[in-house]
Amino acid sequence: MENVVIIGSGCAGWTAALYTARANLKPLVITGEQPGGLLTTTSIVENFPGFPEGVDGYELMTRMQKQAERFGTRVNYCNAVQAVDFSKRPFELTAGGEKLEAKTVIIATGASHRHLGLESEDLLEKKGVTYCATCDGALPMFRNQPLVVVGGGDSACEEATFLTRFASVVYLVHRRDSLRASKIMADRTLANPKIKMVWDSAITEVLGVKQEKVTGVKVKHLKTNAEHTLDCAGVFIAIGHVPNTGIFKPFINTDENGYIIRAGGAATNVPGVFVAGDCSDHVYRQAITAAGMGCAAAIEAERFLAAQNA
Ligand code: NAP
Question: Which of 92, 149, 224, 252 is least buried, going by the fewest C-beta atoms within 10 A?
Answer without folding.
Answer: 224
